[in-house]
Amino acid sequence: MARVTNWQIGRTMSYWYAENRPKRQFGAVFDINKCIACQTCTLACKTTWTSGRGQEYMLWNNVETKPYGSYPLAWDLELLKQLGPQTWEGGIYRGRTVFESAPPGERVLGWMPQSIDYAYPNVGEDETLGKVEKGAAMSLPQQIWMFYLARICNHCTYPACLASCPRTSIYKREEDGIVVLDQERCRGYQECVRACPYKKVYFNPSTGTSEKCIGCFPKIEQGIQPQCFVNCIGKIRLQGWVSPPAQAREDNPVDYLVHVRKLALPLYPQFGLEPNVYYVPPINVPPAFLTQMFGPGAAAAIETYRNARNDRTLAGLFALFGSTERTIPFFRIQGDYAIALDDDRREFARVPIYEPVHIRPAEDRLYQIMRSNTT
Amino acid sequence: MRHLIAILIAAPCLLTAACSRGPTVNTLEVRAVRGAAELPALDPQSSKWDRVPQHPARLMVQDVTEPRLTVPGVDLVNVRAMHDGTNVVFRLEWADATSDLIPDVGRGSDAAAIQLPLQPGADVPDAAMGQAGKGVQIAYWKSVWQDDADRAGSGKDRVTALHPNATIDHYPPQAGGAAREEMERRYAPANAAGNPILTARNGAVQEIVAEGFGSATPTAVQKATGRGVWANGKWLATIARPLNEGAGSANLQPGQRTYIAFAVWDGAQRHTGARKMRSGWIPLVLE
Fold first, then answer.
1. Mind listing the pLDDT tens digit for each residue in B41-91?
2. How far is A41 from chain B (nearest CA, A)?
């Protein structure tokens, strides 16, 4: 075991290998508030990568409804239960990560699902926390809550799958930090399936090997965002590069949201993997639940998000989500526009910070009728 | 006269041992007897095995490297061996309440293996998969490979065998007409990459060399064969190979004393890879 720095938990921690960050790290921001669980991302991924035999219930990208949805079944609850109650002190995690709490004989604290656990990818879909008082569904603030959690492989800085593989069949690409599983070397031991807390490595019974999200690296290599990003009709996703905090740049969109504004948060940072998909937390959810899921920064992130529309940089940056197929390494706000810039700071996409708003009165005087917004 | 008396005394004992008290047991070593023609290489239930001495090989949990096996599985494998001067066959017998063939999530494939030092001699490699510069050769019998071969005629793939009631309307990669095979191969990336774990060239046994944990590599030459039969809560499996497999292999010869080790995986207990029951080195004598 080596000692490595995990900025997401504010301290060093134990990991199977020494710290070795890639030249640049695949990073993404998902704005949960905009997700409608249409599953277009899920299908975009599935039709591209996992339509074969043995991949019937394999969804590298999935969208589940929280609090009751999960794929595979109870993936997060199983581990939270094993990990037990843990504490944060300010921004520092005082509990134990999955590496630090590995039982004797194991490299990682994990659990092994059964094939039936993958058979209900939409369990709990659209279910709210509880029942609503009669009539209260139409009132604000909302008394109950639910939200959609879109998930892909987090291409972690400290992947548990990689640490657990006794054959070193999993590696992290030096050029982009994408975590891939060597399909020629894997012998199907399933240690990675057991170890990944996000359960984003899958066993293929047809080939007898494990498979996982490849971050659409053939697209990344051409400067294009992955399938699940470019097909997102809600425009909730942005793919770029995330730096460690000391190298964070204000003109890097992922850095800006993650480090500068602390608006996008990692999923279950307490597991200790330094995951690199960051979520803008849902504003209608109680802070206690969000703190457990996204760490202690959740409440502050919601406050920032509530004011995002009045913040020209944030509003502009969110307008860039889904505006281009290309990876957005840099951006700038200029006048009324948000501009996407490539590695050489050349503009390749531009969107208005605010779309023009047209208000149509309820009454159409010309035709003397009341307008209706139902069709 | 003294010889005759010895024979007269020994013969009924041997007979009794063979008929009512099971085989002769040799706890010291695995003795490969020189068998008649037609070694039962693919017949673990052959009556030819009845006359071969048996070595009860004690198995221990693999606790040398992570992931270790913390809950013990089967702790005994009974080994018999026969050779004919050209080929050698080992028959392994171990208790297993269930037959687990096709691996799935959280479910392994019953398997067993024999291991020989690549270089003969008393200076043996680490019994746990060998070590750098001192390799081992393993012949690995895995029930899923055998089951694949057995199912081949029926056209049933692993998925339909695992989930016989599942309905799958369509695999898009199969809709490619002439390009169908190529597409199906591409959508099974391990297959497209030529991963040797998919199948054993000779049906059920794969030959592997290793120089320590995590280094197992199938060899270019694959000559081992074997067959397992599960019945009444136990597996009987043969692993057969030529005594001499050529350069880069653990080669054996009649009259030789060397070492052998065994390992058993129980699919129902999720044994895979390093999570296994294994033995240390046991003397192997070829008559």
1. 999 999 999 999 999 999 999 999 999 999 999 999 999 999 999 999 999
2. 18
Contacts of B213 in chain A (CB under 8 A): 166
Interface touch B158/A206, C-beta < 8 Å: yes
Q: Inter-chain contact A204–B274, Cβ cutoff 8 Å?
A: no
Q: Where are the domains of chain B?
A: 33-155+197-286
Pick the CATH number of B33-155+197-286 from 3.40.50.300, 2.60.40.1190, 2.60.40.1230, 3.40.640.10: 2.60.40.1190
Q: Do B107 and A52 touch (CB under 8 A)?
A: no
Cα-trace Rg, chain B: 21
Q: How many CB pairs under 8 A join A and B?
A: 137
User: pLDDT tens, B217-261?
Assistant: 999 989 999 999 999 999 999 999 999 999 999 999 999 999 999
Q: Which long-range contacts (CB under 8 A, 24 or more apart) does A102-106 make?
A: A103/B70, A104/B68, A104/B70, A105/B63, A105/B66, A105/B67, A105/B68, A105/B69, A105/B70, A106/B66, A106/B67, A106/B68
A188/B105 Cβ within 8 A:
no
Q: Is residue A101 part of a domain?
A: yes
d(CA A240, CA A249): 12
Residue A211 counted as domain residue: yes
Domain count, chain A: 1
Q: What CATH number is associated with residue A43?
A: 3.30.70.20
Note whether residue A202 is domain-resident. yes
pTM: 0.92
Ramachandran angles phi, psi of A322, nearest 5°:
70, 15
Which of B105, B146, B271 to mutate against chain A (most A CBs within 10 Å)?
Answer: B105
